[in-house]
Write a structure and sequence with these properties.
Layout lengths: L7 E2 L2 H10 L2 E8 L2 E8 L1 E3 L7 E7 L4 H7 L2 E13 L5 H5 L6 E16 L2 H16 L13 H9 L1 E16 L6 H14 L3 H14 L4
Antiparallel strand pairs: 1-8, 2-3, 2-6, 4-5, 5-8, 6-7, 7-8
Helix pairs in contact: 6-7
């Protein structure tokens, strides 16, 4: 990943926070006919290996797991908040006009060797854990045990597990750190005023935190 120094985020705990907040990762690997990519939800076990372990599952009909069984090298990309940035928000536009549009974003890339897991108990535990994690905030959370056992058994036969010990991890927070302070203030204010969405508010907060402007 192209990494200008001012956009780097090397703190493992911050990288892990983004993965947990945005767990739908794009898993990229290589097959006989070229690159393969699938978006799948991951669980991160931060304590299972030095940089953390990712766990997920794929449909047995998905050819990517067989490709991973042959060549386990995997890149998983987790995308955080992102937003288009118009130069109209920059104070520099009014001062010199020497500005261009850009895109702000936060992203984490992980690399590691995938293990294929077909053990039923592992799969059952993983599915229950994944479900419990995502249902926890609901007033009446759904549990795997709510479905008939014969149905769950049939579903488990149709998936395979993926486990990746993270060997390398990179974080990139491109959130206007390279702009003058007045431009950063303009970006944060503009995001909140022109695009009043949760995504825009999250990006505005990152611009203020990372750029040092706290208006």
């Amino acid at each position: 990943m192209y990494q200008p120094p001012h956009f780097r985020e090397d703190r493992l705990e911050i990288q892990h926070e983004l993965i947990k907040a945005h767990p739908l990762g794009l898993m990229i690997s290589t097959g006989e006919e070229g690159p393969l990519a699938n978006a799948i939800p991951f669980l991160l076990d931060a304590d299972a290996s030095p940089k953390g372990t990712l766990r997920a599952h794929l449909a047995r009909a998905n050819p990517q797991w067989r490709a991973l069984a042959a060549d386990g090298r995997a890149l998983v990309v987790f995308q955080g908040a992102d937003s288009y940035v118009t130069p109209s928000w920059y104070a520099t536009k009014r001062e010199t006009g020497k500005v261009v549009p850009t895109w702000n974003y936060a992203v984490v890339q992980t690399r590691g060797t995938a293990r294929i897991i077909e053990d039923r108990e592992w799969l059952a535990h993983h599915v229950a854990q994944l479900t419990g994690h995502n249902e926890a905030s609901r007033a009446e959370p759904w549990a795997v045990d709510d479905a008939p056992q014969t149905f769950i058994d049939a579903q488990l036969k149709g998936i395979v597990g993926i486990e990746i010990d993270i060997a390398a991890i990179e974080g990139k927070w491109k959130v206007s750190q390279n702009r003058p302070e007045n431009d950063r203030i303009g970006v944060a204010d503009g995001l909140e005023a022109d695009q009043s969405t949760a995504e825009a508010r999250a990006m505005a907060e990152m611009v203020r935190q990372r750029g040092g402007s706290a208006r």
